[in-house]
Amino acid sequence: MVVNEIDEGPGFADLALGPELLKALTGLGYEEPTPIQREAIPPLLEGRDLLGQAATGTGKTAAFALPMLQRLHGAHPLGAEDGGGEPAGLVLVPTRELAVQVSEAMHRYGRDLGARVLPIYGGQPIGRQLRALERGVDVVVATPGRALDHIGRGTLPLKGLRMIVLDEADEMLDMGFADDIEAILQDTPEDRQTVLFSATMPPRIDGIARRHLRQPVRIRIEREAPAAGEAPLIRQSAYIVSRAYKPAALGRVLDVEAPTAAIVFCRTREEVDQLTETMNGRGYRAEALHGGMGQEQRDRVMSRLRSGTADLLVATDVAARGLDIEQLTHVINYDVPSAPESYVHRIGRVGRAGREGVAITLAEPREHRMLKTIERVTRSRITVEKVPTVADLRARRLELTRAALQESLMEDGDLDRFRVVVETLADEFDLVAIALAAVKLAHESTGAAADEEEIPEVAPRAQRPERGPRDDRHGRDDRRGRRGGGAMSRVFVGAGRSAGVRPQDIVGAITGETRVSGREIGAIEIADRFTLVEIPDGAVDEVVSALRRTTIKGKKPIVRRDRDDAPRGRR
Ligand code: AMP
């Protein structure tokens, strides 16, 4: 086993970021920039426009947020009251979920700069947003529909905007926001800096880029694809789990896989420390390894792993660089890595010298696309498997007990001394019953942890077609049967064309108020006086009760499960 000194590649400090931002990143435990950050931050700091192809999980939020905060602060101190409090930065995102997430990230990065960041999205009471806008903000993170609403009311002034980001642009187009985006961009200052991030680059995105970006720098995270054949031959699989169940899923996977030694990769130091603690609490012998540790501490950790006192190493990429651990059988990505080359790097630690290696990735549903990108770039197959159930786990534990007994029967010459026990019991009990009791004791003595928590199955987000449906589409037929092809039901909303209802109002209200994402919504039929919208079966009740609480176009229409819920039937 070799432990090299940590080899620091180009770090955040080399990217000309200011001390306040560097401090925030250290505080968050980010050890080094992800590839997209390395490529996007310098040109953005120079004021260039940028067209980036990147999916969730690549670190794209920080890639635009850090330069945005720095540039805005350079032009006019963030948080200062004298600028009239008009926003200088605008980030447009497709969903409420993302608006909150991006705004929280920007708030964390910009805390020491005093940045005031406000998320605004449909479904949230407008009064609260109005008051916050009045008090003054530096950056608004908004869904296009609600942004346009505010622009119409004169409460979101655009003339002071210096930088605009369109995040997940393809998804915004898919959700029918094309016109809203055009309308917003038309009203912004000509000399603004514009950034567009999209997971795919269909022609419509190119069109927007041509119209609204000035000689943009283009970046794709897949560019540094490893050469064919470079990726090692390793059994690769992935589990789709929601964040809350990740520790449980990791435990389950470890129990079923029973690795000799495993390394679990996390993104940040905080995550490493937290996960190490959680896994130790769950009875695993885990050790943390990250860039914040000294060489001596690292050596100690490695010797515990080597001697078998620990069987799980939880590490960041930087800390694990240069590690060569002979007995390693499993690499586990606790998150999807930020770039394909990082994935290749990580999994290359197993499967050496002809030994069998296993690479397992825990992905959140929204990271499924990144998984696909990695598959394509590495030209290898990552099988998405079901998280083992409690029943699977029990079966596996029994299998381990059976194997241990079999080994004892075949190899142990010292069984005879127990004969007296069996024979005296045999006077009273059936031989099979005696054997069963003995197996039970043996099984329980392995200390198999009682992990009875069932981990809910979540479907990956479906792949989006490269070309979205027409902008004016009322039939979103291509999105039927999402959630892994599950059944769809229709919801009746008592407001339609005559009330000015547009597909994006319905999508905005649903994604804003429920956990249903835009992609899971099926066909939307807008008639004169009502609208029918297809929703995954399991989410209908949630959608109905959420829509009843919200207003659509200023009204509270009747909302119910469609009585005539025959598939695709016209009313
Ligand atoms: P995103 O692709 O922007 O959704 O980011 C994915 C995740 O990676 C988020 O949880 C970020 O906090 C995290 N992240 C972003 N940049 C870094 C970095 N340089 N080091 C570690 N984690 C990061």
TrEMBL record:
PROSITE patterns: DEAD_ATP_HELICASE, HELICASE_ATP_BIND_1, HELICASE_CTER, Q_MOTIF
Residues annotated as domain Helicase C-terminal: 249-394
Family to which the UniProt record says this protein belongs: Belongs to the DEAD box helicase family.
Residue ranges of every copy of the DEAD-box RNA helicase Q domain listed in the record: 10-38
EC number(s) recorded for this UniProt protein: 3.6.4.13
The name this protein goes by in its record: RNA helicase
Chain segments carrying region Disordered: 446-489
Protein origin, superkingdom: Bacteria
PANTHER family per the UniProt record, alphabetical: ATP-DEPENDENT RNA HELICASE DBPA, ATP-DEPENDENT RNA HELICASE RHLE-RELATED
Keyword terms, alphabetized: ATP-binding, Cytoplasm, Helicase, Hydrolase, Nucleotide-binding, Stress response
Positions of the Helicase ATP-binding domain: 41-219
Reaction equations catalysed: ATP + H2O = ADP + phosphate + H(+)
Keyword Ligase: no
Top-level class of the enzyme under EC nomenclature: hydrolase
Pfam families in UniProt: DbpA (PF03880), DEAD (PF00270), DeaD_dimer (PF25399), Helicase_C (PF00271)
Biased composition (Basic and acidic residues): 463-480
GO molecular function terms attached to this record: ATP binding; hydrolase activity; RNA binding; RNA helicase activity
Motif extent (Q motif): 10-38
Taxonomic source organism: Microbispora catharanthi
A GO cellular component annotation in the UniProt record: cytosol
